[in-house]
């Protein structure tokens, strides 16, 4: 989230598209309703009339997987009707940048962008670059008239997305489209702000990342980023999933969103050189220019004294991904299926039900030598060897179960979607001999280390040299119990030497050796600071010698009245509640909308540190520099971007600088936008070149005529391991169901409450039909397309009598987003028939 | 009338039939107490079934003959009816015992049936009903005690009882008036559930009047039955007298019912063609209109067969009325709540069991006590 | 002050947190249920379920509405159930809640018949059945905590207030400040003489499963009868004694004639 949960109350228009907060983030509705009470409009765009939609001022349906078409139409609407926020667009985005004249868009190349290589399914992005002046700064046309400027290219690209065309792709009635466009575009004025809430409805597509990109373009055109009540807000999932990505749980990032090194980045120098964005524009802050400081401090944090200038700060100990390889979920299970792994830790997950194409996942598990299930309960994954259709005698995998303590049985921090890290105390002791995750890791670490010590190994250093100072040691040298406070402090970082501000005369002491870092601004690239995660620097800090756990703060002051509560917990970075907040003010530093000023420039007040006049008031600003109007020292607002500008043109992604509509891998009809059916940059697991039968797919095939999607219900959690065992919840939603429209039910002679079989190209599940008006057939290009939807919270293991059904992921396919590889579990094709017998 | 006790055979086919029902029923009753509740079709949105509708409401109405006769004989000193006092009161006594037993089977905590006696809640019609059942059953026991005291040769006691019989009868009449009407009052609490064809603020009064009408016919009916089954002589004079009484009450009852209809849903509701209107018309024609018409014909009023027919019609009619109030008139509301009710086997068998027990008890009383040969002392 | 809920169904998001919170607080068990045809589950209130959310799909013109109706006891100001109970097993407390004292109950189920909203439920098929119904979380009220369902409700649908008047005021404010948003009626303001739970909705309430009831205070209806009993006693006694005296005199006169 750029903003935070409470901030929804500040919006004038709330677009919920790709999420269903009423069911999946119920408490967020409190703030949405607050906004509505003040007159805000709620727009909901979803294939199905959700519980959120019941509160909407406008509900528009769309066929799953067609959001880019929908949003593309909105971009066109905004541009054609001049509803964009000109001052913002011209000064804060790359609209004026001139693009390489070689660049060709999807309009010209029938769905492709210039530089595509069919063989590798990759783009050569050379032509996607900006024209540079002799100073190395991008050329601009502030009038936005140059045919090569981003603004004109954008216009050209989306001119193809007329409301009629969009409607014929998405199935949304044209009047509904325009109603949504009109309402949302009304926020293109300084005194109106719109926010967008999305989650899995957008990400779980082959075009997931581009869905979100399309929305950021809209938000920037309307000047909605950086403002209270604006932004683009991912409603995150598992309670601490924000924390988990912050801390590098994903394969492609280290903590603090530092890229994971690949084999080609042979040493730290190369890593820093290749991965540090550069700019020659003095007005761009280019915060990622500090990457060297963060990676070095990270290495110091994990290897301590063993990370020295001489040994490249132990950079060689970091695992490297082979060039072009990617360790995403789909690839991991694909490799597992192909017997490339011996063992697997299923740690806090239930892939046998949550994994797309779960049939393949279940088979893959049987090809392991061993598997460790670290979980509160046994689940379909741990018990896969006795699942439906599996003969235990055929399975050689040895399965270990490590019982784990639940969230209530351990203390530590949890980061919510709004980036607020909140400290929780342990409520009860772990029951039944279970251990906390960290203690299990501690145990593992100790034993693996002992093995390396005793038996040696190919490369013991990364393990033997790890710092592991998380509590007092026992006689055996093992940490007795992991103290999460010590982990949190390591994450925050320490000064390893006294740190001086050398620019001041005399040099001013900034931090004392051994103390906790005060901010990531103090981090150094020379090994004099250690920091486990630069964005969390300041979360557990030291002021005047006093140690403060900022995450445990519970003060309810709200000086701005905007619900930022700056002294409640702590928020990364540096407690900034709304990121890119420098875009919430005009070039002079005056808030676009004074009634909801996130920050404002007070030119008269003296800065405490510099003793010069001019300070920012309100939220922690994106850097202390004066507003942009100050030609000399003023800075651009988007400090995380090398050029300091919001990216309407985004050359960074794998599948194009502008989002373009492609159909999902499985879809009912040919792409009406271009000849390019599916996102050209996705990794295909099955195509003309071959592939596993398990990975096959069926598209535009009358045997599987209905679009299907999967979603959650408020009554269950994920695969249901935590909720199916809870009778109260199971009582409310006891069985796998499939929602189908009244029209489809009539066609098929299916009555509500009846058992049906839902089948896809890969597998089938039974479900109870819920016949509802909340799904409506789509009129698409003259034909009728039905869509159905299933939850994915069931699994064969419980209820034990089988009355619940099995996971709907048995139906989904192996395909993922071109950039993130998130599986496309939101759009695929099925058939629905009355169950036999 | 001469005592004919010894002529009564213990095991007739009818009695064996009764016994069979009783055995089945007793088993079901046992199961009900053992397993908590046997399965019935009563449910949350239809908490009262035929045990209340038929056994309690119908049974109590049938027992109306007791207080009508008692007050005629003891209060109004209508000597003519003295011969029927004993059978009428005995019937009422048995009727009340069975109604009380039905309640015991019906309620969730039969062992706490005494709670109302000590936990007064005078706002509750149910409390009023409970107290009345208790007191009136006692009164009926007293009123029928001479018969047993006789047999036990406790003449002293018998004399005392008979001395205060007038007082007892007066108290009994009072209780009956209150009790019969309070059963109607029970339904004052359901203005939105009971169909407007029946719901009325004068429902208690209507219950009372119909109970009197039914009481008269019930006594008459019993006399005729007894004469057939127990071969005793019949006093036509008494029968025609009862018939005349029935005529008068039926006429009055018709007035009451007409008032309820007109002050409530209006005449058209009776002909709406709905299930309720059909049940209403059935109740009215069987229980009031046809009997009234028949009774107006002297030929019928004075013939045994005619009287018997009227008796049967009235009894059925009033029972239908009670079922209408307690069940049929409540079904529409239940349907709105998405439920339906019709008694299941268990409920029916227990209801029949009660009827059978009543008949058998009556037969035994007639055989072993001086019921029908009662002569003034 | 008397506890009161203002349940504004236009705010309800159907998350059913209230349903769970109630079960959890009261430690209520569950039944084996099935899915469909609607989402409502358990389909109805029962002895284990004091409150539930009922889902209503309806189409007005081309507009689809999906309404969530919260069911539960209304805690009537003059509760029919309390007046029905022969043993005061049900009582209206000064905190405003209508609560049940199991040890008194005889299981006659007259409260069930009497409640115009069919709220009291019976533990059918058990040896010592109890009546079950929402307690307004009386135990929590006594500890100055708001009821569990209201505490849980994320959307502010179940608004708790001390004093029915406060909620009435709030309800009127919402009606007057949002013309067109609500069906213009505060359910429970007048119904059965007023209830502690007030409902607001955007559609007529009988469309989403609420009984159409009038304003009459139900206990008054039965009280009219019970209150008349002393008079009846007087009349019957007078008539009885009178007729006895008269007939006795006639009888004696007869005797004199005969002798
Ligand atoms: N109760 C509950 N809450 C949860 C979870 C849970 O399991 N249960 N899980 C948590 C987790 S991990 C996550 S990631 C979040 C996910 O939160 P959400 O993303 O809100 O969850 P979903 O229900 O999967 O999908 C949201 C909506 O996307 C719609 N949808 C499907 N296809 C499309 C499409 O192509 N376009 C658009 N615009 N919409 C589409 C679906 O109809 C659905 O209503 O929820 C979190 N919260
Ligand atoms: N078809 C379809 N598939 C999907 C999705 C979809 O929308 N549609 N959504 C996807 C999304 S967004 C997600 S996040 C994934 C989720 O996929 P998973 O994470 O595999 O699913 P969960 O059921 O959340 O599994 C979490 C497990 O962690 C255990 N657990 C709980 N607390 C702890 C703890 O403290 N420690 C440990 N060690 N274990 C614990 C739980 O018992 C549970 O078994 O599913 C994905 N799969
Ligand atoms: S995280 Fe908890 S409190 Fe927040 S919305 Fe989900 S269930 Fe509700
Ligand atoms: S709603 Fe029913 S149970 Fe609740 S107080 Fe009123 S009468 Fe009693
Ligand atoms: S069932 Fe219990 S609580 Fe209800 S009225 Fe009868 S005695 Fe009272
Ligand atoms: S007030 Fe308490 S008992 Fe009543 S529904 Fe709410 S949580 Fe349940
Ligand atoms: S908790 Fe509130 S919002 Fe959720 S279902 Fe209950 S009343 Fe509605
Ligand atoms: Mo997720």
Word description of this protein:
The complex is a heterotrimer of chains A (837), B (377) and C (259). In chain A, helix 13 (329-337) crosses helix 15. Helices cover 21% and strands 16% of the residues of chain A. Chain A is of the alpha/beta class. Chain A is globular and about 85 Å long. Chain B is globular and about 60 Å long. Chain B has helices at 13-34, 50-62, 64-75, 82-106, 115-118, 125-151, 155-163, 165-185, 203-229, 236-263, 267-270, 275-296, 298-301, 304-336, 345-368. Chain B is built from 15 helices and no strands. Chain B has one domain (41-343): Formate dehydrogenase/DMSO reductase domain (Formate dehydrogenase/DMSO reductase fold). With 259 residues, chain C is α+β, with helices and mostly antiparallel strands. Chain C has two domains: 3-77 and 133-218, 2-Layer Sandwich (Alpha-Beta Plaits), CATH 3.30.70; 228-258. Chains B and C meet through helix 3, helix 6 and helix 8 of B and helix 2, helix 3, strand 6 and helix 7 of C. Bound molecules: ligand MGD (2 copies), iron/sulfur cluster (SF4) (5 copies) and molybdenum atom. The site of one ligand MGD has 31 residues of chain A, from helix 1, helix 8 and strand 24.
Q: How large is the count of helical segments of chain C? A: 7
Shape of chain C: elongated
CATH superfamily placement of chain B: Formate dehydrogenase/DMSO reductase domain
Oligomer: heterotrimer
Q: In which range does the helix fraction of chain C lie?
A: 25-40%
Give the termini distance of chain C in whole angstroms. 78 Å
Structural class of the helix and strand makeup of chain B? mainly alpha
The whole-angstrom Rg of chain C is: 24 Å
The largest pleated sheet of chain B is described as:
none
- Give the count of structural domains of chain B: 1
Mean pLDDT figure of chain B: 90
CATH architecture assignment name of chain B: Up-down Bundle
Order of helices and strands of chain B: HHHHHHHHHHHHHHH
Bound molecules: ligand MGD, iron/sulfur cluster, molybdenum atom
The CATH class of chain B is identified as Mainly Alpha
| Strand proportion of chain B | under 5%
